[in-house]
């Protein structure tokens, strides 16, 4: 590509880089300042980090010093009140997620309006690669219609660009039928086909299992007017991505996000050479899953994240359980910044006690499990 990517331009504005050659250095300075700010904030306001970081030197030079700090485990979030740095009245959205295992409370994540605003900024920059002023975006993700859910955040993010964002109504909405959030995706193909033809989106956001089902509905040609697709919410199989691009003849970008990062984390550019990170909001490390030791670029390990300038619940060296690598060298688009490689799967422990072993698995997430099961029954995957 001849010019800087939209994501690089977004980061350049945020860190004050006036020309491309300044971006890497200015970004590193901004990251180091945000990291030190985040650590001080967490130490002062979070009961969990007040204990965890009390004996740590928090005057870090930058992200390279993160390995001197302890990890945060997903199970720690079961005591979510210990993480909360604001009053509950300042929380705009609370999300409950099940942790692995059968005991203990679910983990909960809290976000203030400012936390969500930072995600809206990232969504605006990333989606600008696929959809523009006066166009229409369909969001098919299960649960996306919830207040401050993915569809709502996209609607808020893209309103200034004049993009119309819509979610399909549930099948049977006028007949008193079951209104499960994902029923309109895999419960009534005719309903979804009609809605997509009527709305005629220029772009749609869907989970991989949903894309597999959509290929059965539109096997030779995409929905009318479709020009771009963003895959999100689960691992996108490379074979499925190739089938969508070939059958529909449209751009397809993949997104990697977690609830813990306020939904947005990293997204592909048109070069398909890794995922560009929200470098001023999320620091990503790759560590050896067994030893916790940092791994060099190009070597796959567990993804560990630190959220920057988060108001409600900052997370420091949080172990995601996802497996990927940070890619060496610049992106084919010309960006000099780090990229995350494809997520290869999730870590799972098999067995117990001294015989327990770690393995790489590919579990579907949440409602995606139900959609994937239906797709498998119908032969879509």
In short:
The chain has helices at about 5-15, 25-45, 45-50, 115-125, 150-160, 185, 190-200, 210-215, 240-250, 365-375, and strands at about 95, 105-110, 135-140, 165, 205, 230, 250-255, 265-270, 275, 280-285, 300-305, 320-325, 325, 340, 345-350, 355-360.
Report on this model:
The chain is an alpha+beta fold. It has helices at residues 6-15, 23-45, 47-52, 113-127, 150-158, 183-186, 189-199, 208-217, 238-248, 367-377; strands spanning 93-97, 107-111, 136-139, 164-166, 203-206, 228-231, 251-256, 266-268, 275-277, 282-287, 301-307, 318-324, 326-327, 339-340, 345-350, 357-361. β8 (266-268) and β9 (275-277) form a beta hairpin. α4 (113-127) crosses α5 (150-158) and α8 packs parallel to α10. The longest helix is centred in the N-terminal third of the chain and has 23 residues, at 23-45. The radius of gyration is 21 Å and the shape is globular.
């Amino acid at each position: 590509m001849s010019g800087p990517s939209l994501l690089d331009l977004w980061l350049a504005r945020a860190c004050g880089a006036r020309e491309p050659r300044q971006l890497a250095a200015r970004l590193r300075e901004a990251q180091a300042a945000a990291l030190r700010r985040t650590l001080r904030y967490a130490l002062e306001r979070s009961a969990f980090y007040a204990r965890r970081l009390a004996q740590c030197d928090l005057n870090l030079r930058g992200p390279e010093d993160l390995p001197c700090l302890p990890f945060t485990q997903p199970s720690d979030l079961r005591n979510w009140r210990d993480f909360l740095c604001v009053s509950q009245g300042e929380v705009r959205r609370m999300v409950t997620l099940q942790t692995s295992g059968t005991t203990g409370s679910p983990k909960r994540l809290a976000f203030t309006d400012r936390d969500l605003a930072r995600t809206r900024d990232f969504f605006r920059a990333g989606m600008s690669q696929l959809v523009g002023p006066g166009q229409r975006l369909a969001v098919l993700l299960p649960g996306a219609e919830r207040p401050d859910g993915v569809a709502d955040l996209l609607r808020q993010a893209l309103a200034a660009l004049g993009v119309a964002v819509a979610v399909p109504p549930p099948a049977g909405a006028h007949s008193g039928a079951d209104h499960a959030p994902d029923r309109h995706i895999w419960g009534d193909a005719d309903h979804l086909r009609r809605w997509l033809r009527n709305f005629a989106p220029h772009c749609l956001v869907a989970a991989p299992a949903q894309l597999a089902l959509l290929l059965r509905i539109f096997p030779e040609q995409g929905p009318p007017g479709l020009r771009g697709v963003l895959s999100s919410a689960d691992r996108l199989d490379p074979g499925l991505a190739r089938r969508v691009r070939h059958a529909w003849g449209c751009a397809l970008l993949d997104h990697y996000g977690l609830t813990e990062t306020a939904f947005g984390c990293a997204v592909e550019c048109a070069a398909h050479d890794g995922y560009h990170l929200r470098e001023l909001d999320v620091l990503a490390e790759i560590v050896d899953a067994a030893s916790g030791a940092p791994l060099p670029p190009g070597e796959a390990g567990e993804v560990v994240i630190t959220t920057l300038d988060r108001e409600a619940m900052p997370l420091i060296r949080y172990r995601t359980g996802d497996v990927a690598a940070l890619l060496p060298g610049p992106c084919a688009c010309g960006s000099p910044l780090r990229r995350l490689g494809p997520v290869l799967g999730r870590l799972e422990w098999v067995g117990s006690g001294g015989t327990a072993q770690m393995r790489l698995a590919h579990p579907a997430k949440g409602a995606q499990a139900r959609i994937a099961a239906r797709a498998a029954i119908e032969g879509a995957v």
